[in-house]
Predict the 3D structure of the following.
Amino acid sequence: ERIWLDGTGSLPVSSLRGADRTANLALSGAELGDASAVFIGTLLGRNPFARSLDLSRNRLGDSGMEALASRIALGSSQLSSVNIACNLIGPVGAAAVTRLLRSIPTLTHLNLTGNIISNDGMEAANPRAPVTVEASPIGALADAASGHPVLTQLE
């Protein structure tokens, strides 16, 4: 059973749901966008078998990352590796990644390379608020990573 939402690739519904006990979910390079992230997060949040999620080289933006993180956090994910490299995740999506880090105690590897996570644009959004490392997307990610019980690799 497969479904097409917003990418060129189809989503493996049975694998995402955990019906076929697939541990490694490889969805890289399928041009998946925010609608797919909502669907993936909803099914993955209830999947006790998934250990690795590769969503690299897609079109996931901030709203897609927020949807993915919030839905996974609602469940009892056992993911140990998440690869979301080379997407369109910015500062807002970075906050969602921070929540994801805090909600998956089994996560040992997180790859964020090739995204647009930075402190740029924060002053434009709120010019009166000072940008500090602690309040920045990068600072929040670093804080969540340093307090994570088993994370060993953050890229």
Remarks:
- Helices lie at 13-17, 34-44, 62-74, 91-103, 122-125, 137-146.
- The first helix runs from residue 13 to 17.
- Residues 49 and 121 are 38 Å apart (CA to CA).
- The beta strands are 2-3, 11-12, 24-26, 52-54, 81-83, 109-111, 153-154.
